[in-house]
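PROTEIN DESIGN WORKSHEET
SECTION A - STRUCTURE
LENGTH: 404
TOKENS:
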């Protein structure tokens, strides 16, 4: 090849490179488009949303609101097509009152699904969730946040399961009569004998054992007793932020080793270490204000009062959610991580003001190099797989019990 031909060949090759290689702006656009395609074609299933009490008021689920974190129009905008409605009440509400209030909240979820049959499907099995997805409906499930609501009764637990409850958080923020909470002083050294019976009964019923909110010793007792994989319905990583509600690396590894899933919580004080430190400094004043202004509806008011006394709280960014997801995935793999936002249960980080912002999580995972299969698992498929395994364990255990 002579010199002129050589120059021509080089120029042609250079032109090909510059024509085919995307510019940085083009690459960014491609990532955004890919993320949007993945997100809006996936099952996006959140395992803990605290909107349930609103269903018992004149608040309309079908209308778009400017307060709170979730409603039907915003779910559609954010691609959120599956959720566990939390059956929640304070751990200080106990006895028959707790049972009655729980039944009313369960009834409110049933009524919502009955009122919107073309939009919402009440699901109790993994196959129900998949069917709802195929039909273009929102998969609505229920999780009970706090073992105090069973009123120390296995028959009442069975009744909740028959009504469609598919996980039981063993404790809320105070100890039950049979299990220690992460938010209280140890009383039982984990699970009592009856507490271990509760875990076994949940296994037999096909209801997931939820270890969010429990004391560390309660977690380790539950892991030892449970014959089915367990869920942490709304917990993040203590290695990043030291909140007692988060899980240590050893706990996450043990949960995953048994086939379980940690569902990352979005609450700002759980995911951001600086904000968590601020909440620790202000804790005594917070407790005093909480007694004066009880209820979740007063969280913002209490935060404002504390900022007057102690200065502005550090701002947590929504990107911290992705940090916790990434930490857990690096620790135990993408098969054991999911989403458990705690929407309507507290203060969200900046940039995750409501469920319309959920596609940002998918885009962040795409930009981090996560593959499509793993992203779909994290968005919701892991939860369905977990439900299937718990269902299989229940069938096996019921079969064994019949033989006995």
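SECTION B - SEQUENCE
RESIDUE ASSIGNMENT:
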């Amino acid at each position: 090849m002579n010199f002129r031909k050589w120059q021509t060949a080089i120029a042609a090759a250079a032109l090909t490179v510059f024509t085919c290689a995307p510019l940085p702006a083009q690459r960014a656009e491609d990532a955004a488009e890919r993320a949007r395609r993945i997100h809006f074609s996936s099952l996006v299933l959140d395992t803990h949303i605290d909107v349930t009490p609103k269903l018992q008021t004149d608040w309309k689920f079908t209308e778009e609101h400017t307060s709170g974190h979730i409603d039907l129009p915003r779910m559609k905008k954010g691609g959120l097509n599956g959720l566990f409605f939390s059956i929640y009440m304070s751990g200080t509400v106990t006895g028959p009152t707790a049972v009655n209030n729980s039944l009313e909240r369960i009834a409110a979820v049933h009524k919502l699904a009955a009122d919107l049959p073309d939009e919402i499907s009440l699901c109790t099995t993994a196959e129900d969730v998949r069917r709802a997805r195929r039909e273009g409906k929102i998969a609505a499930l229920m999780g009970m946040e706090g073992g105090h609501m069973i009123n120390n009764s296995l028959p009442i637990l069975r009744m909740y399961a028959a009504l469609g409850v598919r996980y039981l958080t063993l404790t809320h923020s105070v100890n039950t009569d049979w299990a220690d909470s992460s938010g209280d002083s140890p009383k039982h050294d984990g699970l009592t004998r009856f507490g271990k019976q509760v875990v076994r009964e949940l296994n037999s019923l096909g209801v997931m054992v939820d270890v969010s909110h429990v004391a560390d010793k309660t977690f380790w007792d539950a892991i030892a007793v449970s014959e089915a994989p367990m869920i942490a319905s709304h917990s993040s990583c203590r290695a990043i932020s030291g909140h007692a509600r988060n899980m240590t690396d050893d706990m996450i590894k043990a949960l995953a080793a048994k086939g379980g899933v940690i569902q990352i919580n979005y609450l700002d004080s759980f995911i951001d270490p600086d904000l968590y430190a601020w909440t620790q400094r202000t804790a005594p004043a917070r407790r005093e204000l909480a007694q004066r202004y009880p209820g979740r509806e007063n969280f913002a008011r209490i935060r404002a009062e504390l900022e007057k006394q102690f200065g502005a709280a550090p701002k947590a960014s929504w990107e911290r959610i992705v940090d916790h997801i990434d930490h857990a995935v690096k620790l135990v793999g993408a098969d054991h991580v999911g989403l458990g936002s705690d929407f309507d249960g507290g203060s969200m980080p900046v940039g995750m003001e409501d469920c319309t912002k959920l596609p940002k999580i998918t885009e962040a995972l795409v930009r981090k190099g996560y593959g499509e299969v793993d992203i779909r698992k994290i968005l919701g498929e892991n939860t369905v797989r977990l439900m299937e395994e718990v269902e299989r364990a229940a069938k096996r255990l019921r079969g064994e019990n019949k033989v006995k």
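SECTION C - NOTES
Strands lie at 45-49, 82-88, 120-122, 138-145, 165-169, 208-210, 231-232, 261-264, 337-339.
The longest strand covers residues 138-145.
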